[in-house]
Amino acid sequence: MKLYVYDHCPYCVRARMIFGLKKLPVDLIMVLNDDEQTPVNLIGKKAVPILITDEEKAMPESLDIVCYVDSHYGTKCLLDNVRPEIENWISKASQYVNYLLLPRFIKLGLPEYQTQSAVDYFVKKKTEAIGDFDTHQSKTTEYLTRLHRDLEELSALFINDEAVNGHLSYEDILLFPILRNLTCVKGLILPTNIAQYVANMAVASRIDLYYSKAC
């Protein structure tokens, strides 16, 4: 199977996770951020992740990919349940975490930004969505204060540091990509149990963290 992704994309991380958790091989194909033609040719629109199945079918949508791989390759490893408290936390964090993340992604040396045109494309699209990158980066302390408070609330929802609710589930698929991406933020302090969870899940899912590149 092949999986077309961006490294920074949380939806792509979801799709990548299931291959790591099930120890399945997959060919990762990193797409330049301004490459519209490749995904359009595959699924008719610019979007990733895209899975090319063993039957050569192109499948978009991260959770559809996760469900397909979990259901068709070996014993299912994910429980379907997602607690409302986790959904609410993700919804709350989504109101501001991109202010921390988007200005930093282009500084990490990621494969989707290996050309200046790819960087320019990303900056134009995302500044239209969230505003000036430098302005948001100048507010890092303000955003981190809010995030650290919210992370303490999240910490209380963790059952253990191997899986959020004590067994691998869609809670992990939804939550880990956000926490993983936050490791690119210099000054981030994760509660002890969440920090251990992020480290454990990175190994289990074969997803690199960004601590060494944090800015």
Automatic annotation (TrEMBL):
<dbReference type="InterPro" id="IPR004045">
    <property type="entry name" value="Glutathione_S-Trfase_N"/>
</dbReference>
<dbReference type="InterPro" id="IPR011901">
    <property type="entry name" value="Grx2"/>
</dbReference>
<dbReference type="InterPro" id="IPR036249">
    <property type="entry name" value="Thioredoxin-like_sf"/>
</dbReference>
<dbReference type="Pfam" id="PF13417">
    <property type="entry name" value="GST_N_3"/>
</dbReference>
<dbReference type="InterPro" id="IPR007494">
    <property type="entry name" value="Glutaredoxin2_C"/>
</dbReference>
<feature type="domain" description="GST N-terminal">
    <location>
        <begin position="1"/>
        <end position="77"/>
    </location>
</feature>
<dbReference type="Pfam" id="PF04399">
    <property type="entry name" value="Glutaredoxin2_C"/>
</dbReference>
<dbReference type="InterPro" id="IPR036282">
    <property type="entry name" value="Glutathione-S-Trfase_C_sf"/>
</dbReference>
<dbReference type="InterPro" id="IPR011767">
    <property type="entry name" value="GLR_AS"/>
</dbReference>
<dbReference type="GO" id="GO:0005829">
    <property type="term" value="C:cytosol"/>
</dbReference>
<protein>
    <submittedName>
        <fullName>Glutaredoxin 2</fullName>
    </submittedName>
</protein>
<dbReference type="InterPro" id="IPR040079">
    <property type="entry name" value="Glutathione_S-Trfase"/>
</dbReference>
